[in-house]
Design goal:
By secondary structure, this protein is mainly alpha-helical. The protein is built from three helices and no strands.
Length: 87
Amino acid sequence: MNRTEIIAHLQIALSAVLNRDIPELPEDARLFDELGLDSTSVIELLMALEDTINLEVDPDELEPEIFQTVGSLTDYIEAGFVSAAAV
């Protein structure tokens, strides 16, 4: 899965979790400050991504930096797919 596909899935999942349309999702958009995520919606977002793209989340790997921007979350997801493909 490439970055564009990951961001498209993020956009759909964020729209569902936040209950509003997100017409565009730039990589520098701040998840908490600009999009309005909170700790509960982060959990909902991760669960939605687990269901839609089979993302496997290791809670021990989750650092606050992952959730700074759309780009940082995309990096985390992309790395997960690269390491899963290498196994």
